[in-house]
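Table S4 entry, Elongation factor P.
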Amino acid sequence: MINVNDFKTGLTVEVDGDIFTVLDFQHVKPGKGAAFVRSKLKNLRNGNTVERTFRAGETIGRAQIENRGVSYLYASADDHTFMDNETYDQFTLSSDQLKWELNFLKENMNVNIISYNGEILGINLPTSVELKVIETEPGIKGNTATGATKNAKLETGLNVQVPLFINQDDVLLIDTRDGKYMSRA
């Protein structure tokens, strides 16, 4: 059990039978009435984000999440196959479980699998990944007033806004948290 006053970003908790990770929290002490904790939680089973308010001092269950290294092998239809790096066991996840992550996954990529009591909840991507530009318009000279950008399609199908000097076949560093261009690789 954990006290809601001890919330930290990234903490995993069990509330009403579901597993959540704490995205944001705020301790509120109104002038009149009891203190409370306002929090933003992400459901690890379905990916939904909810806002929840707890009374100060309330205790909830802490969820022990296990992270293991796995390799992404291949995709077939709506299933994506991974292999445990230690035991070489293979398992599949559906496209519904990997909506956001599919924008960054490439074959033979190493990621971490998140599981709770043997139930696979999803994957943790590295903070940034290298992806190749497969399609972009050429930059127009003289079109660089301030921070001009253009659209680029990457090898995974993700569309990203990039500076004008980026060309086709360039390899870019992309932030997996927000899907934005960071730099050339």
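The chain has three domains: 2-62, 65-124, 128-184.
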